[in-house]
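Now read these lines:
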Amino acid sequence: MADDSGLEVDALQGAPGVRSARYAADAGFHADATTDTNNNLFLLQELARVPESGRGARYRCVLAAARDGAALLIAQGTVEGRILSTPRGSNGFGYDPLFYLPACACTMAEMDDQAKWRVSHRGQAFRALLELLA
């Protein structure tokens, strides 16, 4: 089983997408911080002139079950949100402190693990894969 997850930002034509974990490094951005912090700082720099109303984004997860090099089942999940101008919360990693979910009135980093599993892209993808396996 393998998964790939990423952040897709509308104002950036879907970037960083599958390059989410390497977004800042790919662009040569380095702020002497952790990879997650560098990625968040670079994302905020790229969105500096984009108003809150134009910061729609989604997390997407694609999950595949394979055997002997052949994909047997593929499932995916997405969660819609928007990118804030400043981080909020400390539970999570990556872009979670910037990813705001209007339906929950919080960022992914402000949710506890159980709440995150219920709404997250990974939780959706795993539940969809379990349904396919049943």
Notes: The chain is about 25% helix and 30% strand. The chain has a mean pLDDT of 95. The longest strand covers residues 70-83.
